[in-house]
DUF3488 domain-containing protein (Leptolyngbya sp. NK1-12), 769 residues
Amino acid sequence: MSSPLHQRQSSTPALLNLPVLKQIWLRLEEQPRPEPEDSLLLRILVQALVTVGILATDLAAADSVDTLRISLWAVPVSALGATWSWYQRRKRNIPVKFCIAIAMLIALGVFFVRLWGERNDTRLALATLLIHLQVFHSFDLPRRKDLGYSVVIGLILLGVAATLSQTLTFAPLLLLFLAIAIPVLVLDYRSRLGLPTQGVHLGLGLTSKRFGQFLAIVLSLGLVIFLMMPRLPGYQLRSFPVSAPIPLPQQYNSSTIINPGYVQEGNNGTGSGGSASGLNSAAGPGELNKDFYYGFNSKINQNLRGTMTPRVVMRVRSQAPGFWRVLAFDRYTGQGWEISRNAEEQVEKLERPEWSFRFSLPWSVTLNRTKEVIQTYTVVSDLPNLIPVLYEPKELYFPTNVVAMDKEGGLRSPVSLSEGLTYTVVSEVPYRDRTRLNQAPVRPPASIGTYYLQLPSRVTEPLRQQTEAILARAPKPLTTPYEKALYLAQYLKQNYKIQPDLPFFEPNEDLALAFLTQYNGGYPDHFATTLTVMLRSIGIPARLVMGFGAGRFNPFTGFYVVRNVDAHAMTEVYFHKYGWFTFDPIPGHELLPASIEESSSFGVLQQFWNWVAGWLPSPLTGWLNQLFEQIAAGLGWGLMALTAFFSQGWVGMLFGIGLITGLAFLGWLGWSAWQAWRYRRWLAKLPPMEAIYQQMLQYLAQQGLQKQAAQTPLEYAADCRTRYPNEQAKAINEISQAYVHWRYGGQRPNLTELKELLGRLQPSRSGKP
């Protein structure tokens, strides 16, 4: 018989004939072997978790800016490695471990190379590294601890996917991951305790019904915590995703605005977007383009008619909602607007360094308080080369190495914003402090008045008379520009209507005068034009601004979904030393657009309700809002009443304490009655024999003798003999015997006799089941 040493030497690979390598090999062989994890169910579920994490990363990347498609090979190779590891779990596999270590080092090197190339957004590079590591790691999973590493990698991949995802297509995979994770945690816990993990209902008696209930509870609690958790400013992350660099065209004219909805010069009636001649025409009667908003151009014609077909154009992740400003106009033409300072030499070109995507933008100094807000925009459908931002931007992270800014604060890209493009903006958004704005000087500087008080001479006096007549109807004299702007915007909103069948204007007809005196309203953007020229007529600087409304907020993805029909015009009013502030006179819109608030710690809860309300019918939404307001008013009245009682001295304090005690007692009575009703309803659904037995168990539990889950009915009855008198013990035994014969023997019980026995056992009750 050969010795153990001889056996180990004979098993040594032939390649390790060198004494040093042989000695190392023998020492490795002498080390104690790790205890492998033999639960096949746990291994299958862990592999399913990893697969879901890989698929989620691929799906989320397709939703945002890039497509990995790494799951096409990573999922099958990882499954192959997990299968091989199952059969090799009791072996040391030292050569395989060595190869895995080399492969991981290579993957790390690839990660660093990709990290430098994608330094604008490193999330995909990190996800790719984790997937590579998991694929290699799947060939070495002997222990439960190694399976735990795979679970953590799957969880991290899901987290990366959550940051990339912009739509709800990620939600099913998130739910699937949670549904798999629950039994994985149960099986892992049983493995830690040394309990068997084969042939159980996912461990610890977790049946499919209980599993579904547990999953629903976890989801509900997670959503409640997500909605109620305060978003404190200290926890806001700074993230600056940007698309891959875009090469510039050979010649870049900063004065050019590329809008596919407009017919471009030299194209013989066809624009770059394929729009037909006459759509969004620059002057005269015309038809609106159904896809592209007419207001994104250096000159706009508001004598166009028609509607747009709704479609999503971009998704915005922002720390605060707002008006995604695109461009503004300073010169009023009577039936439209234009940017007067649009020559190439008047539009400032801005360049960024080669090693960074950051543009430093000029922004105005103000006496007003501001707040930094970070936004990330992902273009879903092709847009003009105008860059939407939240006013006022101070930093832009953009994939081209040059952008332009016009005199009205509009940002322009050298290329159109194509589908999939992502960029980030950091803005200093001013607070709208009514007290401060009322203190702004009445007379604007001459430089401001030159451009933002301009009106055609033939309409200046009629507009001024109309405006002053409206201001004279105010309940009190209005002395400040802010109060006048606020009143006029509200007046237009309440006294004029949107006219969808508005006829075309005559060639010499002024839009604002026709709006006020002839048509009693107009198209939505006509409200902003009218407000702007009315303010100018009384010496308040104003300009027309175009952009997108905040869009519909999705609380599950955290993105504002913006459509082309969210684009509209507003009025920007200048307040000396405080800057520009917007007013929205369009009926159905908020008078003051959404912006930053003093405290938005619980803003997600409000945004969730707004999201839910958007899917409900308007009457139901209004009724629910009134109900919530009444509840809040009732709670406020109650708190005020209690405060009044406690402030009345000892008598009031005693009365308040008595009132609180009485309300608490009534609440306790109501809760007890509700529980009793639920109990009776539950008994009514049970078979009569089951109902009698359950009533007996509840009564005995109240007496201090709880039936253990491991006890059979007859064992429990035998235990009761030592605790109760003979008559009650006999009743318990007979009811238990009848229950066992009915449940397991199919015998019909004598319900009348059993009810009498239950009545003897419960002398204070009626005995009715």
Residues 553 and 691 are 50 Å apart (CA to CA). The first helix runs from residue 4 to 10.
